Amino acid sequence: MPVSVSLPPASDRTLPVVSIDRLVSDHYAAVNRLTLSILGDAEDADDATQECFIAAARSLENYRYEASPRTWLFSIAINSCRGMLRKRKVRQTINQTWQAAQTLFSKEIGPEDETIHHEKEFLLWDAVQELDDKHRLPVLLHYVHGLSAPEIAEILGISEGTVHSRLHYARHRLWQQLHTSNLFQMDRQEASQ
Amino acid sequence: MMRPHQRARELIQAHQDGLLSAAQQAELQAHLAVCPDCGRYAVQIGQLDQLLTEDLPAHVPTPHFSDSILAQRLSEIQRQTRRNLMNQRISQTAQRVIWVGSAIVLLIVFALAVSRLRPQPVAPLAATGTTTPAVTPTTKPTAMETAVETPVPTAPVQTGLKEYTNEDIGIAFQYPGGWSAATGGNRFEGSDGFFEIAELPAPAASLRQACERLANDGSFGQDPAVDLKNVEDRSYCTILTSPNKAEDNRSAVVIGAHGSENGPRFYVLSVDPTHLESIVTALRFTKPLPTQAAAWVVSTPDPNQPAPEITPTVQEAAGLTIEEYPVVSKDIDTPGHFEFNNRIPASVFDKHRAVREYNPAARVEQNNQMLGPFGYKFVLKEPSENQIYDLYNGGALVQADIVSMAPISFSESGEKFVLQIDVMTGESFILQEDGLHPWNPGEHWYIPAVYVGNDLTWVENTSDMNSVAIRKGAEVVFNFKNAGMSPENPIKSLWAWGERWVAEIDGLVYVDGQLLNDQLGASEVFNWQMLQGKPFFYFRKGDKVQISYDGNVLPVAYDDVMHYQCCEASAFNPGGNDTIVWFYALRDNTWYYVEIGKY
Description:
The complex is a heterodimer of chains A (about 190) and B (about 600).
Chain A lengths: L2 E4 L13 H20 L2 H18 L9 H26 L1 H10 L13 H12 L2 H12 L4 H8 L3 H19 L4 H10 L1
Helix pairs in contact in A: 1-2, 1-3, 2-3, 3-7, 5-8, 6-8, 7-8
Chain B lengths: L3 H13 L5 H13 L1 H20 L11 H35 L1 H10 L6 E4 L2 H7 L11 H7 L5 H5 L1 E6 L4 E6 L3 E2 L5 E4 L2 E7 L7 H9 L9 E7 L2 E7 L11 E9 L2 E9 L1 H9 L2 E2 L9 E4 L14 E5 L2 E10 L16 H6 L1 H4 L3 H12 L4 E5 L8 E5 L2 E10 L3 E2 L6 E7 L4 E5 L2 E4 L11 E3 L2 E7 L5 E6 L2 E7 L9 E7 L2 E6 L2 E4 L2 E2 H5 L3 E8 L2 E8 L2 E6 L2 E7 L1 E2 L13 E2 L3 E8 L2 E8 L2
Antiparallel strand pairs in B: 1-2, 2-3, 3-11, 4-5, 5-6, 6-10, 7-8, 8-9, 9-10, 13-14, 14-37, 15-16, 16-17, 17-19, 18-19, 19-20, 20-21, 22-23, 23-24, 24-25, 26-27, 27-28, 28-29, 30-31, 31-32, 32-33, 34-36, 35-36, 36-37
Helix pairs in contact in B: 1-2, 1-3, 2-3
C-alpha cells in the first residue's frame, strides 16, 4: 500500500523526510537538556522545550534541510529560551524588591545546585553563568552539549570564525576571573597527592 | 602592531581549538620558550579547557522521558499545532473580509501597478497593524513568535522609525523616519543611507544557491561575508562586502526567499552597511511560504515478485545512445530508497554493467600501464579479494597498504602526473613523478588535484571553512564564498577540460571562472563531467531539466532529475564515467531509469 509523505521541493531535497513524531522521539531529551542549561530552571525548560517543538511542527513543511534536524531544533530552542529570558527579565524587574527581601532571609537553592558536588565546579559554573549571553551560549553549546564550531555557527546564525573568537574571549574572561582563585591551585594540590 | 604577549595569548587560544598552522605553532613555541608568564597562561588555559570539558556537563543532568510522557508531550504539541492552524485560518478569513471590502481600492492599485513590487511605507506602525491582520499576535503564541511581536505599535513613533511592508514579498521592517521614497518606489533613502528592493535578476534553485550566486558575482569584492540566517521558520541570507572594497556603497544585501506557484523567487534587499544590522534585526516575514511540496509517494515493491521486463525507448543523438526505461508512476513510488531498484529487472542493469561498474582491478591495470614509464607499479597483496596494493618503484617499496586511488591526471606535455592514493592507516598522499607527497583531503574539500594544461590545479578550503579557493600552479585563480556551513561538501568536482578548469559548486558551474549558468540562463547546472573526452552536464531551465553534451542539447527533457541527494538516497544521484552516464528522471508523472553512453 503506498504511503504518502511530504517532501520539500525537488531542488531542496537533500535529506529523508522528517516527521514531528520522529523529532520528538529522537531529540526531545536533548532539546530539554539544552533549554535547562540555558534557563537553569526545570519548569521554564519544559515550557521552552514544548514551545520549540510546537514551532517546529508548524514550520516542518517549510523546513529547508539547510541544517540537520538537531541543529535546526537547537536554533529554534535557543529562540524560545531568549523569549523566556526576556519575559523573565520583565518579571525580575517587577519583583526586584520582593526578591531582594527574600535573599536577605534565605539562600535561594536552584536546581543546578543539586548537582554541584565540588567547590571548583561551583566556581566554574558560577563564572560561566556570569558571562553575557553572547559568550555564555557558545560555551554551553560547546562544553555541555558537545557541539562543534560549525554546528554552533549554524545554530546561532554567526560565522564559524565568530564562534571561535567568542570561545576565545569566554575562556579568557573565565581565566581572568578564576586564575586568582584557588581553582588551578586546587588542581595542582590534587595532582601532587 | 600587536604586542608579543597579546599575540602569543591569541595563538594559545587558537591552539586550544586546533586552529594553528605549523608556522604559527613554531612562532608560539619560540615565544613560550622565553616567556614564563605566557607559558603559565598556556598551561592554565589548557587546564580550564579540561575542566570545562569534564566538569561543566555534570551541572546539567540528562533528562529521561518515558515513552508515555513523550507520547503525552507529542499529543500536546499536535493539539497546539492544530489550534494555531485554526487561529491562522480564522485570521485569514478575517483578512479576506477586509480585502473584499477594499476591492475597489485594490483594483485601482493593481491597474496602476507597473512593477511586481508594491512597497507600502507607513509612517505610524499602528496604521500598518490595521492593514496586516494576518500577523496579529494571537495567531503566534510561541516564543519564536514573541520575537516577531517585538516591534510594539508605539515604538516607531517614539524612536522616529517608519515601517516598510511589502505584501508581494511578505516582509516588513523598520527604517529611519527621515528617509523618503526615491523614484520608482522600491528605493528609500536619506542623507545617511538607503535601502532598495529588487527581484534577483538571475534564476536560482534554492536560497543557498541564490545567495552564493549573488555574493560571488564580483560586486561584493573578493572576500564577502556570507551568512544564512533564520527568522522564525524563514531563512534569509546576508552578504557583507569585502572590507577592502569601498568604491560601491551597495555594500550589504539581504536576500529574502519567496516561493510562488512557478517555483522559488528571490529578492535582493540592498542596504547601506551602516543600517544593515538595524534593518535585519527588525526584519519580519508577514506571510508563510506557499506550500510547494508535492506529495511524494514512497512504497516498497513485493520482494517475491520479480520486476517485469521493461522495454526502453532508444534513440541516437550527438553520437550517443539514449535508453530510457519507464519504471513506475510517481503516484506509486519515488527513487530515494534502496527497494526502488527492485522495480527494475536485473536485465536492465546487466546490459551495460561491464562499462558502468567501477572495476578496481581494471583501474590498477590501467594505472600501471600509464605509470610504467615513470618506474611505478601497484602490486596486489594477498589475499587478493581484499584489493589492497603496495606501490613499488624499480623493486623498492614506496608505500604499502593502499586501499584506494583516484584516476591519474597527466599534464598536457605528458611529463608530469598526479594521483591521489589512500592507505589503510587513513592517511592520503599524492603520487607525482618525483615521488610521494603528504596530502590531507580535508584541506582540499576532498577533491583530487588535476593537471590543467601543464599546471597542477587543486582546491583549497580556508580556516573558517566558508570558502572554496582554486589554485592553479602558484596562483589562486578563483575564490568562492559559501553561504554558511552545510552538511554537504560545497564543491562537487574539479575537472580539467584541456586548458580550462571546471568547478561545480552547489548547482553553479564555473568554467575558467565564468559562470556557465549565466550563459545558459539556467537556475542550476549539475553533475558536469567528461564523457568520451567531451563535456556532459544537466541543467535546469524554467521547469525542465535538459542535458548538454559536446555543445548539443540532447533531445530529452525531464521535470526532475534526482541529484545532490544525501545518505541512502545518494544511491540515486546521477553516475558516470568516460563511457556511460546513468540517472533517475521524472517526466509526465513517470520515473525513468536512463542510461546514455557510447559503446
